[in-house]
Design a protein that fits this description.
single chain; about 250 residues; alpha/beta; Immunoglobulin-like; 2 domains; about 55% helix; elongated; disordered N terminus; binds copper (II) ion
C-alpha cells in the first residue's frame, strides 16, 4: 500500500456542507450581478445605482467562491437587505407590469436571488443541512418559472395600436421623450414605446395617464384647448422623461 493511498482526506468530507453554503450565496450574488448587467445593456445606458449593486454583488460573489470569511456573508446579506429595502418603489413598479417582460422578469429574478442570498446566509450561519438549501433553490426557481408563465400570458394580451393617417407620432426610445411635440386640437397622438420596459404617458392638469407596455403603442385623442402642456413618465426613476406638447 502506498503512502498516498493511506493519507486521510479530512478537508473534502468535513468542509463540504460549508462550501456548498457559501456557493449558494455566491451563486445568488453572481446571478444578481449578471441580471443587472444585462438589464443595463438592454436599457442602452449605465444606471448608476444598479451598476453599483452589480459591481458589489459580483465582487462579493467572486470572493465567496474562493474564501469564506464570516464577515463577507454578513456583507452579502446587508447588500441584499439594502437593495430590497431601498428599492421598494422601483420593485413595485416593475412587478406591477408583467406585460413588459424585461423589467418584470429581471426584477422577479433579482428579488428572488437577493432573498436566496439572505436565506442562504441564515442557513450557513445555522450550519443547516443541504436539503434546506436545495429547497430554497427549488422554491426560487419554481416562483421564477411561474412568473415567466404569467409574463408570457400578459405579453400575449397586449394591444398595440397602429398609427393612422393624420396621427401625430410621439416616440420614446431608450427612455427619452421628445422635447417638443406640436399637435392640432381634436387630433390624435400616437405614442410609441420602443423600449423593452414599460413607461407611462402623463399630461399635467389633464386626465391623460396611459400605461405604455414594452414595445407597444397607444392612440390618445387630443381633447385639449390650445396651449402648452407638460407630458412626462411617472415610473419611479424615469423623472427625466418629459417634454412639452403644444396644442394648436
Ligand atoms: Cu418611463
Amino acid at each position: 500500500m502506498s503512502l498516498t493511498a493511506e493519507r486521510p482526506e479530512p478537508s473534502t468530507t468535513i468542509a463540504q456542507p460549508d462550501r456548498s453554503g457559501d456557493r449558494l450565496v455566491a451563486g445568488a450574488l453572481l446571478t444578481v450581478a449578471g441580471l443587472l448587467a444585462v438589464y443595463q445593456l438592454l436599457a442602452g445606458h449605465v444606471i448608476p445605482p444598479l451598476a453599483g449593486f452589480a459591481a458589489v454583488t459580483a465582487a462579493v460573489g467572486a470572493v465567496l467562491l474562493r474564501r469564506r470569511p464570516r464577515w463577507l456573508l454578513g456583507l452579502a446579506a446587508a447588500v441584499a437587505v439594502l437593495y430590497l429595502g431601498g428599492s421598494v418603489p422601483f420593485i413595485a413598479a416593475n412587478l406591477a407590469h408583467p406585460e413588459s417582460p424585461v423589467s418584470f422578469l429581471a426584477e422577479v429574478f433579482v428579488v428572488l436571488a437577493f432573498l436566496t442570498t439572505i436565506v442562504g446566509v441564515v442557513l450557513r450561519w445555522r450550519d443547516a443541512a443541504d436539503t434546506a438549501r436545495r429547497r430554497t433553490v427549488a422554491g426560487a426557481v419554481g416562483i421564477g418559472l411561474l412568473a415567466t408563465v404569467v409574463s408570457l400570458v400578459a405579453v400575449a394580451n397586449v394591444d398595440t395600436a397602429a398609427r393612422q393617417d393624420g396621427d401625430v407620432a410621439l416616440v420614446t426610445d431608450r427612455s427619452v421623450f421628445p422635447d417638443q411635440v406640436e399637435a392640432p386640437a381634436g387630433g390624435v397622438l400616437w405614442v410609441d414605446n420602443r423600449d423593452p420596459f414599460h413607461h407611462t404617458f402623463v399630461i399635467d392638469d389633464t386626465d391623460v395617464h396611459e400605461v405604455l407596455a414594452a414595445n407597444s403603442a397607444v392612440r390618445i385623442p387630443i381633447d385639449l384647448d390650445p396651449g402648452s402642456y407638460r407630458y412626462w413618465c411617472d415610473v419611479p426613476g424615469h423623472e427625466s422623461m418629459e417634454g412639452t406638447l403644444h396644442v394648436r
